[in-house]
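User: For documentation purposes, I need each entry recorded in a consistent format: the amino acid sequence on its own, followed directly by the corresponding structure tokens. There are two entries in this batch. Please keep commentary to a minimum and don't merge the entries.

Assistant: Recorded as requested. Entry 1:
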Amino acid sequence: MSTSTSDIDYTPPTFPPPSLKPLVEEIAHLLTTRKETISIAETAAGGLLSSSLLSYPGASKYYKGGLTLYTLPSRIAYAGWTQETIKDYRGPTTDIVSGLAQYVRKDLESTYTLSESGTAGPTGGETRNRTPGYVALAVDCERGTFTREVETGLGGDRVGNMVRFAEEGLKLLREVIVGESTRGAYGGKGFVSKSLTGEGKESKA
């Protein structure tokens, strides 16, 4: 006995996640009114950044493209990495995401590129940047590369960390667009490392 699709009770999932939706709406409005564009290079967020930005109607006006560079070989294929780069790789850092953002923005010629790399869990390593919940973020634009480190405090909650990584990335992007991230120019005054309380700590890059 066949079942008609009309007989299936289907409730669409909430997307983007509630914590991302207002950020996406604001960023989409900012980019559209300013006639600016965005591209994405993400790893541990697994495509959440791109898909969230694309969920907004009219995304083709501001979205130039994106890459999900989850594996090291994908970074060789699409982000200019070499075997030597992989040999020296020690996990996500602000240097790593800065390089990804700069490379992708040059290729896609967008106004901004947002990049993300973190440790979603549930497993991790012994160093801070290998601890589940750690993420490094960067936004590259003509004014420079702005970076941030965040520790979510969610432990090994993989999905929770992925959503939070995307949320923190969108927050940084919004701040750079409106000119609030003035302390984090990579190669200049260092980066802003945000604690769980949201307090910024400046570190020299």
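Entry 2:
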Amino acid sequence: MYLKKLVNQSLVVFTLISPVTSIAIAKTGTVVTKMPLDPAHGLLEAKSQYRIEYTAVDGVRGKGERTDSAAVFIPFGPEPEGGWPVIVWTHGTVGINSDCAPSLNTRTARDSQYLNTWLSLGYAVVAPDYPGLGSDGMHHYLNAQGEGWSVLDGIRAALTEFPLKNELVLVGQSQGAHAAFAAAGYQPTYAPELNIIGTVLTGTPYFSAESDVASLFTKSDDKNQSSGDPKIPYIFYIWQSAADTNPTLKAENYFQNAALVQLDEAKALCITPLTQKVMHNRLNMNNSLTPNIQSLLTNALPSLSYPTLKITHPVFIGIGGDDINVPTAMQQQFAKDVQAAGTHY
């Protein structure tokens, strides 16, 4: 079958960053509410589609229960014996405000085409929003534990509520690749009952002790140094997430005056309007960031990092040679590091 062929050809990622310990928690992944999804936010290849809210552990803080949300799409056709196999779609950057949640908005043409294809092939789609998107609190951007635990609890909830088979493939793009790989890393200890048979990643963000802010943004000697950089919104979201945890952080220590208005607006603006403002105002590394921004990234590293790169199922990594959002060099380093761990593929 198509999916198994894809998995067999994929790159398996192995290496250990930090140990994942067992987590003693109450039962989570329980559906709290279930309602038909607004058709404007749905997919044409779905016979039925729902928005659910479910219980989850607060991964940002490492304890406590919260309620997160997801969309679930069921394909046309007779239900297969044992239930529908599942694509778990982890979405790219949408923002950090609750209103930016994919389940509350119309999906992009690209995402709709992609997910409709999976539905047409006979796969159900479970699409978590992540904590703080469509739910209470600020979304902590690229927080691996927050994303990963919520995705796994969303899968648990969907499996108990819908005719789905415990045969799962995580598929993520950009921030979604970060969320998918984090979920894959946490799964053995956080949700060992889930049967993840493969993970597909494209445009994967990767942070390590060697991560250098200067390498992520347009260099000062670049001929386009006066142009806006579409990656600036991402550092805004990372700072807002850090400031939500540590209110003593002062924006002016990390950002120049030209960027402060858009930095504040990042709390409310979803990615498209925020990026439009950044590009219109030509915000980039040279006129927006201070040298202290490196310390922001360094201090955020524990939350940005994957729990492990050693995954026991096949992982496919797709890299865009002209990616303007996740630097190609970052993606290549990710692939290089996991390959250096001795993984055959």
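Summary note for entry 2:
The chain has two domains: 2-207+305-340, 213-302.
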